[in-house]
Write a structure and sequence with these properties.
Layout lengths: L2 H5 L3 H8 L2 E4 L12 E2 L10 E5 L4 E5 L5 H8 L24
Antiparallel strand pairs: 1-2, 1-3, 3-4
Length: 99
């Protein structure tokens, strides 16, 4: 990201860029609203799946002990060992609610 773009950002966007939100996916309710946590290494767990968002990019973090059912549901793969880093070609497209 260029310095000019950061300088032109509002306070809320700058705060999100500097302090990204960490959304736990492994224990999220289907009908509930995702509540971002303050991003910290201490919040990550080996059995968890988290979405990190900073207003410009999304990153999916999967713990080594992430449940196989979650990997199967997201990527149609039997385990995390079968997933190639930096690729999401196996990801399923799920319907998203329209707002």
């Amino acid at each position: 990201m260029k310095r000019q773009a950061v300088m032109a950002m509002g306070v809320e966007d700058t705060q999100l860029l500097l302090y990204p939100g960490l959304i736990p996916l492994h224990n999220m309710e289907l009908e509930g609203e995702a509540v971002p946590l303050r991003c910290s290494e201490d919040r990550l767990s080996d059995g968890g799946a988290f979405l990190l968002e900073n207003g410009h990019a999304l990153f999916l973090w999967l713990g080594q002990a992430c449940p196989p059912e979650l990997i199967q549901g997201l990527f149609n793969l039997p385990s995390l060992a079968h997933l190639q880093p930096n690729t999401v070609s196996n990801a399923r497209r799920l319907p998203s609610p329209s707002h």
